[in-house]
Each structure stands twice: as structure tokens, then as C-alpha cells.
Amino acid sequence: MTKNNPQQGKRAAVVINPMKSPDEHFQATITELCINAGWDEPLWLETTQEDPGRGQAAEALEAGVDVVIAGGGDGTIRAVAEVLAGQDTPMGLLPLGTGNLLARNLGIDIEDPAKAVLGVLEGAESKIDVIVAVLDHGAKELTFLVAAGLGYDAAIMSNTMEGLKDRVGWLAYVESGIRNLRGEPVTAHISMDGKSETHHKVRGVMVGNCGKVMGGLEIFQGAVPTDGILDLMTFSPQQKFGWLGVVAGVLGRGKSRAVRSLAGKRAEITLSSPQEFQIDGDPVGLVSHLLVSVDPLALTIKMSASSEKKSESEVSGRQSHTSPQLLLSSEN
Question: What is the pLDDT of residue 56?
Fold first, then answer.
């Protein structure tokens, strides 16, 4: 006997940060959505301060669910993705944070949680790259999906005031950015796919899997999380108005010597002194050595067809990279 509803008997797990839940009836709302879509009642797993999602994602896999929906900010989504990378079970996104960086890059609805969940339940599967970061010669290994940063941008994340973030959202990062403009530059030795360069008076190094960051700003022009390529950018503001040169370099697509970009599959970064480090917007601490590499198409995402088509259109516009390339000119 065949099923009239292809979704019948399927079950989702929802790994959710309870602090990000829109209201006290949210679980009931999501449960009703699942049932109305022909799915079973979802497995509801709340994160804790001690476990931001890894243990819950592992529990969901053990339960044999058909999809794991990560509900919360970018930290929750990253924690769930660390467990699901390399697995057959797909991940769905329920963006409830301030940045919602991966959701923005994939074209997933960030305004309507119910619509985002419905997109998972009724959507199709696709795969994206995962970036693996090894800190300080193996002291710690982490996974990220959107972008990581050493120096200035990490200092912004570390010093953003939570109360202000709750009131004005991502604009709180702008305020932190202004406060952290002053800082000591460092020397960065960078090797991309075996080709080494030295960058002097660097205030920041960013590594990206996706193009867009806070506020929808496209830092890495044309970068998409399905090309098997990681993008790297250094910021070296020159003299008094140096940050204007950085802005021009980012927004003007290579018209400033204050910004330098590379692309490849594996990068090693050594700094002359430890700097703040962040991954997908979460502060990690001080780091002086970083090894990053691409795990191509390691994570399966389940999302609406409209989101998938948007991602595919962006991929078609991406230039293929087979070796490290200088994308923006600069002086060492």
C-alpha cells in the first residue's frame, strides 16, 4: 500500500535556543505546522548554556529523525552543523538571532519563523561547503559556515554590548566597530595552497565561505558556499584616513591598496602577536596561528525551492578558482 502523503511518517527534530523563542506558544505553533504538513510531532530539544546544540544534534541523529532544524542564532546553527557535517541527515534553518548570517546568504526567510520552518518541511535538499579551522597548531578545532576573522572584526564581535544588540539589532555592531577603530597592526604571514606572502601593518584578516556578513554587506564579492573555495581578505589601513581606503577596497571591488584578497582551498595564517578571533560572529579568544581548509559539500541543507534557486543563481555568477589568485591589488 502506498502513502497518499509523501511526508507521512516523517519526523523533524527542533534543536532550539530557548532564549531566542519568539513566544511561549512557539513549540505548539511549530508542532501544528509539522502535523498540518503531514509530518509527525517533532522531537523538541532545547540548548543550554553548557551545550549550545552539539549534544542535542547528536541526540536527534540517534533518534533517527529525517531532518534536524536548528533554531536560534548563528552560534546554535554552527553547533548543530558541526555534528551534521558528513552525515546523511539534513539540517534545516530556523533563524532567530541578530545576524542570521547563513540564512541571509542562502535566501532563507529571516522575518517569519513559521515560513522558515514550512520551507524546511516542504523544501528540497542541497549541499554546502563547511570550513574547518585549526587554532594554534591543534589547540582547538572548530567548524564555521559563513566567515571567521582575526583582529579588527573579531574585536567588534567581542566588544558589542548585548543590551544594545537587543535594542537595535545588528546596528550594535556598527557602534562597536567605531569604538574599536584604534588598534595596533600586526604582521601576517599567509600561505594559500602553498603560495606564501607576508602582509605588513595588518589590522584584520577575514576568511569567508559566503559573501554577505552583517547588514547584508557583501565582503567577499561573488563568494558562495558551494564552490569548494575559501576566500581570504586582509585589511591594512594606511595613515590617518586609512579606514576609508578599506571601505573603498571592499565596496569598490579592488580599488584600494588597503585591501588584499586571495582564494583557494587551504590557508595558513601566522600572526606576529595574538589577536582576537571570531567564527560566524561568535568570539573565540586570542589566536596567533590559524589553519583553515574547505570540506566541500559536507553539509546537507533542507530549504524551500525558492531559496535553492536563489543560491544556484549566485553560484552561476562565481568565477571558478583552481589556484590562489590575487583578486584585489595591494602592496606587501
Answer: 99
Please report the beta strands in the chain, taking only residues with DSSP state E, as ranges in sequence order: 12-16, 43-46, 67-72, 91-95, 124-135, 140-144, 147-151, 186-192, 195-202, 204-208, 230-235, 259-264, 266-279, 282-303
Rg over CA atoms, the chain: 20
DSSP secondary structure of 258-296: TEEEEEESEEEEEEEEEEEEEETTEEEEEEEEEEEEEEE
Core vs surface per residue 260-281: b (16+ CB within 10 A) or e: bbbbbbebbbebeeebbbbbbb
CA distance 185 to 273: 9
Beta bridge partners of 130: 295
Q: Which stretches of 164-216 are assigned E, i.e. beta strand? A: 186-192, 195-202, 204-208
Cell of 136: 594554534
Domains in the chain: ranges and CATH: 12-122 (3.40.50.10330), 130-296 (2.60.200.40)
Q: How far apart are CA 163 and CA 172, in angstroms?
A: 9
* Distance between CA atoms of residues 207 and 154, nearest Å: 12
- Contact between 172 and 164 under an 8 Å Cβ cutoff? The reply is yes
Extract the C-alpha cell encoding 146: 559563513
pTM recorded for the entire structure: 0.84
**Rounded distance, CA 142 to CA 284, Å?**
10
Do 199 and 187 contact (CB within 8 A), yes or no? Answer: yes
- pLDDT bin (cut points 50, 70, 90) of residue 330 is very low
Residue 147 C-alpha from the chain's centroid? 5
